[in-house]
Amino acid sequence: MVTGATGGLGSQLTRAILESGGDVIAIDYGDVPPTTWEPLQSLAKSLSRSLTYHACDISSQSLTTSVFELAASQARYPVGGLVNCAGIGIVGDSIVFPEDQTRRTLDVNLAGSLYVAQAAAKVVTKQYHEGKSLGASFVFVASMSGYISNKATPTAIYSASKAGVHQLVRSLAGEWGSSSPTSSSSPVIRVNSISPGVIETPMTKHVLAKEEWTSVWRQEAMLKRISTPDEYRGAVIFLLADASSYVTGTDLRVDGGSTAW
After folding, report:
1. Among 132, 162, 210, 246, which one carries the catalytic annotation?
2. pLDDT higher than threshold 70 for residue 180
3. Going from the N-terminus, what domains does the chain have, and what CATH number goes with each?
4. pTM for this predicted structure
C-alpha cells in the first residue's frame, strides 16, 4: 500500500515496488493524473503485477480506515508493506503563518501518518488472525527538516510535523515490534522512516525556481546538488524487504549529507 502514490516521489516508489515483484495498492488525494497513472499501469501489466487506485484524504481517520479495509479486501495477496509518502509542504514566515495552513500541515503530515499506520495495522492484524499474514513492514517518508532548521526557507510547521513523524515511527516500532510475552495475538510490524533531502518534483518546482534558496541547499549538501525521486527507491525497497528484517524504529537519512556536517 502506497499513499501519495501518484506524486513525484510516490510514483517512483510505486514503480520500484512493481519492478521488485510486488503488487501495489495506490492511494492518493483526488483524481489521478493520466500522464502519471497510464505509464504505471503499463508497467504493472508488462510485469503481470496488480496496480489499483483508491482516492483518500488521509487527514480523515474514519475515511482512511474504510478505504484501507476496502482496498485490502479486493487485493489478491495479503498486505505485506506500507509506504506513507503522502504529505504537504508550505513555506511561510512563522510570525504570520495562517491557522488553516498550520492545521492542514499537521493534519496531513503528522495526524495523517498516524491514521495511515492505524488503518494498515488493522488490516495486517485481521489478515494475521485469518492465517494469511506473518507481519509487515511500514516505511514513512519524513524529512531532513525533522533534524535541522532550514537555512534557506521558513518552514517551522513543516519541520515540526516531520520531526513528529520521526517520534511517531519510534513509538509505533516499540509497540508493534513483538507480540505480547503471554500471547501471540498480534503480528510483528516493523516501522521505519526515511528522511529525504530536497527533491526535484512537481510539488517543489515553485520553490526550486528561487535560485537564492536552491543555491543554499546545493551548498549544504555534501554532494552539492538537489536530489531526484529515483534516488530514494533503493532505501525504501531495502526497508520493505526481508533484507532489513532486524531493522525497526530507525530513520534512514537520504539527504546527500546535508545533516552530517
Report:
1. 162
2. no
3. 2-254 (3.40.50.720)
4. 0.95
